[in-house]
Amino acid sequence: MKKSEADENAMVFYDDEGIGAFVYLKEENEPIELETSELPARPRIKIGTLRLAERFRGQRLGEGALGVSLWRWQETKKEEIYVTVFEKHESLVSLFKRFGFKKVGINSRGESIYLKSRQDISYSNPYISFPFISPNFKKAGLIPIYDSYHDKLFPYSELKGAKTEIEEETAGNGITKIYIATPFSSMHYYVGEPVGIYRIFSGPKKQFKSVLTSYCTITKIDVVKDQNHPIITATEFIKMAGNKTIYTPETLLRIYDQNRNVVMIEMVYNGYFGQGHNINYKELSDNGLFSTYPYNLIYSPEEFIQILEMGDVDVQNVIINQS
Questions:
Q1: How far is Cα of residue 303 from the mean position of the Cα atoms in its chain?
Q2: CB atoms < 10 A from the CB of 275, how many?
Q3: pLDDT-wise least confident of 56-60, 150-154, 246-250, 254-258
Q4: 196 shares a domain with 157
Q5: Buried b / exposed e across 88-124, counting CB within 10 Å, b at 16+?
Q6: Which of 56, 209, 227, 262 has the greatest number of beta carbons closer than 10 A?
Q7: Are 112 and 157 contained in the same domain?
Q8: Both 52 and 163 in a single domain?
Q9: Separation between Cα atoms, residue 293 and residue 275, nearest integer Å
Q10: What is the pLDDT of residues 264-299, one digit of tens each?
């Protein structure tokens, strides 16, 4: 009530049983007291509370909650974001480390301070730099996904005029996404490559309703089958896909059995254009950005930046530390 009366906000996820996740972010500009020193005052976001209901453990809601917190931090353009956490919460500490938070000290209550700074973004892997995209990429690509799958995997990528309710899926909760490709030939993608997510509309007027909605960075590529030659067994393939894809194990097995080429692409969900800002096929084509099949499209850094700008993205706030 005290926070509510002060007009502060929290991000809350509900289901039929009540609150499933609760995230409270606080804007600060004051010193952080450590055991033997202090960090000087700077514009910061503090993750004051990040709680998950026990029934959602293992459903990737923690990764999703942290991802949304980092998006909010990015929007504010504050220098730093930090959290205080006791080391006994090992899975939570591991999650913060994975997303680039560094331990900077311990406070008087014995909590560790984990902090991430815009001035010190490492591009050693796309998780550590999330939500920012490395300025060092050499090319970019496009990933085509049919509408019914897209809307479950990328629930934040809203469509203008869409009224349909999105079914809750574990794959949609997290920031890590897995896309199963069945290309006719080998693919050009590489780890660290930014890609646009292209939603293929299954109805009429595809050139207006098929749209580029989101952008990700590839974190892992596994060739599962190559020209009908199994590289990874079906059992291992299903295990690796886990709960980061919207496919059931039965569907994954069918994909494995019925296709000559199967490639599993893991991505981190850097951002989305948002309702009214998605870019349709006609706009891309008119700008010379859709000249071949989606899998074969290769964009220069300049073309990818052009696409972000077409989606009304503040590029300087997405690709930072540009030389």
A1: 21
A2: 13
A3: 56-60
A4: yes
A5: eeeebbebbeebbbeebbbeeeeebbbbbbbeebebe
A6: 262
A7: no
A8: no
A9: 25
A10: 999 999 999 988 899 999 999 999 999 998 889 999
